Amino acid sequence: MTRIELDRVVVRAATPGGPAPEVTVLRETTLDLTERRIALIGPNGSGKSTLARLVNGLVEPSAGRVLVDGLDVKRKGREVRRRVGFVFTDPSAQLVMPTVVEDVALSLRHQVRGREERTAAAREVLASYGLDELADRSVHTLSGGQRQLLALAGVLATDPAILVADEPTTLLDLRNARMIGDLLLGLPQQLVLATHDLDLALRCDRALLVEDGAVVADGAPAEVVDHYRASAR
């Protein structure tokens, strides 16, 4: 399994027009993450998405270091992003090509050079996720579950070692949320999952509770979820 390390990481953000020039989004945090499925839970604005985005460099630390298998995310960002895939809450942030097959083919542009070969490889990826019949459809005509599944397929097409998913089921109905959740938890990749779905978090191997920019509980998912539920009363 891969290893994700946060070494005394702090994240600050500018607050234009605010009472202070900067606000601390994530307080000093040190973590060593080696489990296969790691859940990040906590209220909106707690800092869990910031923590998730540190893993592939979408957010850079203001202090400290983030390492992925020994690679400094800030210094070796390109190498790290080859190893770390990212799935957003809203798949519209990722689906940029007109058709389903073109979107997956875009993900494969570095692995497969020839256009025909790349399209064929993209169709194989779609078939593996049950999306082959939608290959020539516009991405704008897909349902919410289909769009999220397509976004996930595009990321996984590059075979990353780690998948970071930032609240991937939040915009989905119950059926599609279960489908995406089951798929994520069944992946061979190491998974870092920021989620409000506590049932999904309970199926992970480790959970971290983030509140007010700090990790306040870390350990077995059942214990961390109980801590969260108790603190929310």
Automatic annotation (TrEMBL):
Q: Which Pfam families match?
A: ABC_tran (PF00005)
Top-level taxon of the source organism: Bacteria
- Which CDD domains does this one have? ABC_cobalt_CbiO_domain1 (cd03225)
- The residue ranges of the ABC transporter domain are 4-233
Which PROSITE patterns does this entry report, sorted A to Z?
ABC_TRANSPORTER_1, ABC_TRANSPORTER_2
**Keywords associated with the record:** ATP-binding, Nucleotide-binding, Transport
Q: What InterPro entries does the entry give?
A: AAA+_ATPase (IPR003593), ABC_transporter-like_ATP-bd (IPR003439), ABC_transporter-like_CS (IPR017871), ABC_transpr_CbiO/EcfA_su (IPR015856), ECF_ABC_transporter_ATP-bd (IPR050095), P-loop_NTPase (IPR027417)
Q: Could you cite one Gene Ontology molecular function of this protein?
A: ATP binding
What is the official name of this protein in its record? ABC transporter ATP-binding protein
